[in-house]
Amino acid sequence: MGRSTWKYQVFFLFCLILHSQLPFPSSLSTSFSSMPPCSALLHFTSWQEDKHCCTWDGVECDKNTSLVVGLDLTSSWLYGNILSNSTLFFLPNLRRLNLADNAFNDSLIPSEFGNFKSLTHLNLSYSVFSGQIPFEISQLSSLVSLDLSKNELLVKALVWKRVIGNLTQLRELILDSTNMSSIRPNFLMNLSSSLTTLSLHYCDLQGQLENNILCLPSIQTLDLTGNWNLEGSLLKSNWSCSSLKFLGLSGRMFSREFLNSIDNLKSLKHLALPGCNITGSIPAWPGILTKLTYLDLSNNSFSGLLPSSLFNLPNLSTLLLGYNQLVGPLPSHVSGLNLIVLSLSSNFLNGTLPSWLFSMPSLESLYLYGNQFVGEIGEFKYNSLKYLNLGYNKLHGSIPRSVSRLVNLTTLYLSSNNLSIMLGSEMFSKLKNLETLDLSNNSVSINNNAAYALPNLQYLYLAYSNISEFPIFLRLTTNLQSLDLSNNRIYGQVPRWLGDVGNNSLYYVDLRNNLLQGPFPILNSSNLQFMFFSNNKLTGEIPSFICNAIYLAVLD
Fold this sequence. Notes:
The chain starts with a helix and ends with a strand. The strands form five sheets. It has a 22-stranded mixed β-sheet, with no helix packed on it. Strands 16-18-20-22-24-26-28-30 form an eight-stranded parallel β-sheet, with no helix packed on it. The chain has a three-stranded parallel β-sheet with strand order 10-12-14. The longest helix has 16 residues, at 3-18. The protein is built from four helices and 38 strands. It has a domain at 410-556: Alpha-Beta Horseshoe (Leucine-rich repeat, LRR (right-handed beta-alpha superhelix)), CATH 3.80.10.10. By secondary structure, the protein is mainly beta. Residues 1-8 and 17-45 have low confidence and may be disordered.
C-alpha cells in the first residue's frame, strides 16, 4: 500500500481518538492531574504517527492489503457522542468493531453504523447508549456476532423483524437488558439456523413462548432469564438442541414433563431456572448431568428433601437453591464437592451444619440464612470465604476461633441466632477486609481493652445485641457508612469521637431505644441522611449541624 494511503489511515485513526468527537475524559489541551498519571493514554502508547497504524494497540489490518479491518477500543475511557460525521465512519473496510465498556453519554447509536457493509463482529455493550436501535443495523448482512447488551436501548418490532430477516449469518446475538417489551415471543422464531448464542437476559419479554425456541439446530447458549412475564406450556421437547451447554429460562412456562426431560441435555454445563414457579420435588436429573458447573433453581416453589445427587456433581462450582420450600437436613457426608458459591437461603432446612460446609477449599460465598439450622458453627478449614451469611437460624454457642483464618472475608451476617459473641477478641482483629458485619439479635459482649481496627468496615449492625457501651474500635473506622446500635443498653453520654467516625462517609445512624444521657451528639458527616435518637434521655438543644445536613431525609 502506498505511503499516502497509510498516512490517510493514520490521520483518521488519530482523529478518532484525539479529537472531540470521541474524547478521553480529559482532552489533550487540559491537565490529566485529576486521574492517575498518563492512565488515560496507556491503552494507546503505541499510537504514534511515525509508526504504521497496523502496529498500534487495538488496530487490526488485513495482511495482504494493510487496510484497517479491526478496531478494538474496549475499556478505553472514551466518552461523549459519536457524531454522524465521525472519522470512525471513514474506515469502510472494518470487519470487527468493539467499543464496549466506554461512556457515550446516553447518546443514540448513529445510523451510519449501517454503512459498515463488511462488518462481521459489532460489540457496543456497556457503553451508555440509549434510544432506539437504528434499523440500519439490520443492513449489516455479514454480521456473525452482535452485542448491544447493558445499554438503555429499545428494540421496536419493525427493527426486530428486519434483524432476524436480514442477518442470516448471525451466530451470536446478545441484547441483555435491552427493552424488548413490544416484541412478542413468537417473533423469536425464524432466527438464523446458524445461531449458537441467543442471550436476551432481562429484556422485559412478555407473552406466550413457543416450544420450538428450544430447538434451534445449532444453539449452544440460550439465556432468557429475568423475563418474569413470559408464559407458555413448554412440553417435552425433541431436544434437537442436544449440543446445548447453557440454558437459562424464567417465567411461568413449565410442565413437569418438560422439567423431567432436561436429563436429555447431556452437554449442559450451565442451567438457570430462577423464578419459574416450579412446584414439587427437585428432579433426580442433576446427578445425571455430570458436566454441570452452574445450577440455579432459586425463587421457585420446590418442596421436599434435597436430593443427594445434587452433592455428587464433581464439576459443580455454583449451586443456588434459595427461596424455595425445601425441608430436612443437609447430608452428613459429601465427597468430591468443590463449590465456589452455595446458597440455600430462605428454605425450611433444619438439623446441624455438617463439617463439609466449612471444608471446601474454594468456597467463596456461603448463604444459609432464613432456615432452621441448630447447633454450633463448625471450624473453618480454609481462608477462601468472602461472603458468609448464617443469619436467621437457631444456631448457638460461640463463634469458632478459626474465623480468624478468613482473611478474605468482606461480609459476615450472623444476625438473629442464639450466639454468644465477644466483639473485640483477637479473631475479629485479623479480618482486615471486612466491610459488612451484622451481629444483631444475638448476645454480644464488647472488649474495649483490645486495640485493633477494622479499616475497611462500612456497615455495622449490632441492634438487639444486649451491649452496654460503644465499640471503641469504631474510632479508627474511616469508611463507615451505616451504624445501627439501636435497642440495646448503652448508657452515658455519646462519646465525642463518634462525631468523626466514617470520615464524612456516614449517612445512617441509629441509636434509638438505649439509655443515652447528656447533650445531643454532634456528628460531623455532611452526608447524613437518616438519624434515629428517640427513646433515650438526651437533653439540651438540637445542635446546629442538623441545619447543614442538606441530604437529611429522616430525623427521629
